[in-house]
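In this section we walk through a basic example: taking a raw amino acid sequence and producing a predicted 3D structure, encoded as discrete structure tokens. The instruction is simple. Fold the sequence below.
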Amino acid sequence: MAERLNIRQAEPADHGQIVGVIPSWWGGRDLSYAVPRLFLEHFANTSLVMEDDGRMVGFLVGFMSPSRSEEGYAHFLGVDPAYQGQGIGRHLYERFFELCRQNGRTVVRACTSPVNQASVGFHKKMGFSLSPGDGESDGIPFIKDYNRPGDHKVEFIKRLP
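The resulting token sequence is shown next.
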């Protein structure tokens, strides 16, 4: 990773910038509803922003599960398409894994849409396993109607060493 890139703790003030880039970073899909401001208000200490000379090029919104004391949850990860393939997502996840270990967590969970094949492939490369589901698409198991009808999700789990 180039020296000009740095990872910092997210702040509530980052919210506008994060939701502002989501549609363009996801090829026109507006998933900004999935990152409400409350995540950066209540989980800023476990959420991260990657910057290139002060410009946001990646972020990870994550938290330590309050009801599953051994788990951390990576809720949303985004990387500027111009920076994809440069290790930004991997570095954000590695820092989040470090935060999880510091907080006594041994498991990290995440999920994505089954249509997001790039995300599925990335999580597999990061050492996540796919959790079983009640549906399948192109060999990828998913949970039907995860948040609402038609909103299927692939769940991932990673055990930290």
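Looking at the output, two observations stand out. The longest helix spans residues 88-102. The chain has a mean pLDDT of 96. In the next section we compare this with other chains.
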